[in-house]
């Protein structure tokens, strides 16, 4: 198989920061085109104002990476799958669970690969944490994800709209790690979502989960943190404490600290190449299901209005 000719759809922050360098650094791919509604393309490949325009007039492609906000992703993905293209979905994979499940069926019918990516699962500490925890007795887990929304999401109106997830946009990354490293499935028991008076999505959330063995798991999400930022998961076990910090990049176990270089998106593109080459899909909605349950079962509390 020759290099996979891929188009990036949605040339925003994550496409520029991570997808472009990861595609350039992986011989399994060649960037064939971009789609950017504002027309701000790159010098080296053709840019189109819409996926329609790319499919009508563009170069031949094998795959698309959808880096748009989640609210528009289903239609783009369905259109690409319908044209026999492999599809890489940024996280979260859609705006609703049902649309992601529908896409999985559409990919299977089209005989192409669908990858619902979770970049945080590829952070350096996550695989060794999962391996270490596999045979431990877990007593509790605590997730703390506190960051400054003004630093990380300046002016991103979509993130505050329905389907944009608010503080769960980063929070779902923590859940993508927790659902991967904890050996048993867990589920929400109670939660509070703090909604700014002028916004449709939460700015903070305080959640309690438990797993099928009764293990308590808590999650503290807050977008109002200034100063040092916190992206930690602390798991207490019968053999000591396992701490993942810096979003999964640094792992601390009772016998020492492991920290390695950031390879999240390189790992995602290696996985996507493998899926395309072996004719498989990878669609795990577990992190998104927990977020949906928080919206389904959490209390809502109105807090101060938020302005960018
Ligand atoms: P962003 O900077 O707002 O970029 C989104 C891009 O999508 C914009 O360039 C926008 O173009 C484009 N777009 C919107 N509708 C489109 C359509 N119908 N067709 C083609 N392009 C369209 O957002 P982002 O931060 O990159 O986030 C995008 C996704 O990546 C989100 O799901 C987010 O959770 C995920 N993600 C983000 C980060 C991060 O650090 N920012 C990290 C990991 C994952 P216009 O501006 O022209 O409308």
From TrEMBL:
Residues 4-115 form the Gfo/Idh/MocA-like oxidoreductase N-terminal domain. Signal peptide: none annotated. SUPFAM superfamilies: NAD(P)-binding Rossmann-fold domains. It comes from the Bacteria. Gene3D superfamilies: Dihydrodipicolinate Reductase, domain 2 (3.30.360.10), NAD(P)-binding Rossmann-like Domain (3.40.50.720). InterPro entries: Gfo/Idh/MocA-like_OxRdtase_N, Gfo/Idh/MocA_oxidrdct_glycsds, NAD(P)-bd_dom_sf. One of its GO terms (molecular function) is nucleotide binding. This is D-galactose 1-dehydrogenase.
């Amino acid at each position: 198989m020759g290099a996979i000719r891929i188009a990036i759809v949605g040339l925003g922050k994550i496409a520029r920061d991570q997808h472009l360098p990861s595609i350039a650094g992986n011989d399994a791919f060649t960037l064939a085109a971009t789609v950017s509604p504002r027309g701000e393309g790159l010098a080296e490949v053709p840019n189109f104002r819409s996926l329609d325009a790319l499919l009508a007039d563009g170069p031949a492609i094998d795959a698309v990476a959808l880096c748009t906000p989640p609210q528009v992703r289903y239609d783009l993905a369905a259109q690409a799958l319908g044209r026999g293209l492999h599809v890489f979905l940024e996280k979260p994979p859609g705006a609703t669970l049902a649309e992601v499940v529908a896409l999985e069926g559409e990919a299977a019918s089209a005989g192409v690969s669908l990858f619902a990516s979770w970049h945080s699962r590829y952070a350096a500490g996550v695989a060794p944490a999962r391996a270490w925890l596999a045979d431990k007795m877990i007593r509790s887990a605590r997730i703390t994800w506190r960051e400054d929304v003004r630093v990380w999401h300046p002016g991103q109106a979509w993130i505050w709209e329905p389907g944009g997830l608010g503080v769960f946009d980063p929070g779902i990354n923590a859940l993508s790690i927790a659902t991967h490293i904890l050996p048993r499935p867990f589920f929400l028991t109670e939660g509070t979502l703090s909604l700014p008076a002028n916004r449709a999505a939460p700015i903070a959330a305080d959640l309690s989960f438990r797993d099928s063995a009764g293990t308590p798991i808590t999650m503290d999400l807050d977008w109002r943190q200034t100063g040092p930022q916190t992206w930690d998961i602390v798991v207490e076990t019968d053999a000591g404490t396992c701490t993942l910090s810096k979003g999964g990049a640094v792992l601390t176990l009772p016998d020492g600290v492991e920290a390695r270089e950031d390879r999240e998106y390189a790992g995602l593109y290696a996985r996507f190449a493998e899926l395309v080459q072996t004719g498989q899909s990878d669609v795990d909605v577990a992190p998104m299901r927990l977020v949906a349950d928080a919206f389904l079962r959490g209390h809502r509390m109105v807090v101060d209005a938020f302005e960018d």
